[in-house]
Amino acid sequence: MPDRPGLITTEETRRELDALLRRCVQCGLCLPVCATWLATGDETMSPRGRLVLLGELLASPAEAGPPDPSVSRALLTCIGCQACTAVCPSGVPAALLEGAVALAGPGTAERTGVPPALARRLDRQPVLRTVGALAAVGRGVLRAALGPRWRARAAGGPLGQLARLAGSVPRSLRADRELVAYLDRLHGGARTPVARLATPATMRERVVWFAGCANEGLLPHASHRLRELLGWAGADVIQPPGLTCCGALAAHGEQPARAAALREQNLACLQRDTRIPGAGAVVTEAAGCGVAIGNYGDRLPAPQVDAIVWLARAPRPAFGAVPLKVALHDPCHARHGQGIIAEPRALLRAVPGLVLLEPDEPEACCGSGGAWGLRHPGLSAEVGERKARRLAATGADLVVTANPGCLGQIADGLAALPFPAPAVIPLGDLLWYAALRGGREGN
Ligand code: SF4
Ligand code: SF4
């Protein structure tokens, strides 16, 4: 893509983009899966509409200058979720629209409340931990002021933006006993004794663990439980010291040099660790990291495999019964980025008593999109509300998902609804609980 916003720099670039755009046959199949079109009903906020605008930009002379602000907004608000690519019969890549940001010109992102300097640093664990602690304080203050339904009561009022910021920071229950007590209460069964998950006498495979900065910074307890679950299923999990952010946030924040430096740091750590030559997989926890680490290619010492996929393939012990209705949200970087659809469903269906529910519009993004939601908070909240309403409409007792950004966005969307709605927890936490109950039942 051109390197100067608002201008097409070379004829070659123009021709390449034009050839890609010509693949679009205007069929419209991509509209019903595009979260920004679903939320706004505006054709210019759809994949097809954005492609038309991009084509018009390409056809305009370079000296025409930056595009109209409405055109910039339509292009800049593409989440890059790849839902459109997944259904497009002509293979028009969503990357085309992501790249169109370079053409859209600066200055049209919404006022965010999150300073860009902070947004750029959200791939650093100390920053994430501070953000998590501040959000917890904010939620405590709002709960004290507005009561248990603080998020819904704050929606649309003067505290609405603060409540959204505090409510959308990903979080999970810290202590195992808190999680177990919460889920026991939710289905009303007998108390489940809390213990460590047993591991098999012989481990099936050594795997390298890549949690990602958001999981380690904001969800360390859920991350620990997921590692334990992998061990229960026969994974000898090793954690090379020095691994850092995968670089996805920097890449999406238009910091390619930082993304490349993070990648090189990770690859150097993996090369240094003497335990790694025996590893069968680099297991990633967050869906966004999975795509980024997968893009390291053959420089990785072992293939990248998502943790949920690894678990689904493993000949693991039986889960115990969890009599709950559970709605599943697929993160875009899992569903569209890695084709992970069957595996989480197979795991949930393997839990006795659990009823798996599918929301309408399962392909549509929740509106988190990494740093996208920070740049477009108003639209992100609209998209999130739509997703939350569809998840709540399933009648589920509980929602689960497997990506930190989705977890925070959906938690906030559900809590902001003007009626009681289910909570959302990490998919790994629910599976860990089912494994714990399996051990209890002597399976
Ligand atoms: S699905 Fe593909 S070909 Fe059809 S309108 Fe969308 S981008 Fe164009
Ligand atoms: S990448 Fe996502 S947000 Fe962007 S046009 Fe495609 S479906 Fe819509």
Give a description of the structure.
The protein has 443 residues and is α/β, with parallel strands linked by helices. The chain is 49% helix and 7% strand. The strands form 2 sheets. Strands 2-1-3-4 form a 4-stranded parallel sheet. Strands 6-5-7-8 form a 4-stranded parallel sheet, with helices on both faces. Helix 23 (404-416) links the parallel strand 7 (398-401) and strand 8 (423-426). Helix 14 (220-232) crosses helix 24. The longest helix has 22 residues, at 125-146. The chain is globular, with a radius of gyration of 22 Å. One iron/sulfur cluster binds at residues 24-30, 47-48, 51, 84, 88, 90, 92. The site of one iron/sulfur cluster (SF4) has 14 residues, from helix 3.
In helices, the fraction of residues equals: 40-55%
What's the rounded overall pLDDT mean? Answer: 88
State the name of the first-level CATH class of the largest domain.
Alpha Beta
Number of strands: 8
**First and last CA, distance:** 56 Å
Largest sheet, strands/sense/barrel:
4 strands, parallel
Count of helix runs:
24
Uncertain runs: 1-8
Helix/strand layout:
Elements: H1 11-21, H2 35-40, H3 47-59, H4 69-76, H5 83-87, H6 94-99, H7 101-104, H8 116-119, H9 125-146, H10 150-154, H11 160-167, H12 176-187, E1 205-210, H13 213-218, H14 220-232, E2 235-238, H15 248-252, H16 256-272, E3 281-284, H17 287-294, E4 304-306, H18 307-313, E5 325-328, H19 332-335, H20 342-349, E6 355-357, H21 372-375, H22 377-392, E7 398-401, H23 404-416, E8 423-426, H24 427-440
Parallel strand pairs: 1-2, 1-3, 3-4, 5-6, 5-7, 7-8
Helix pairs in contact: 1-3, 9-11, 14-24, 18-20, 22-23
Bound molecules: iron/sulfur cluster (2 copies).
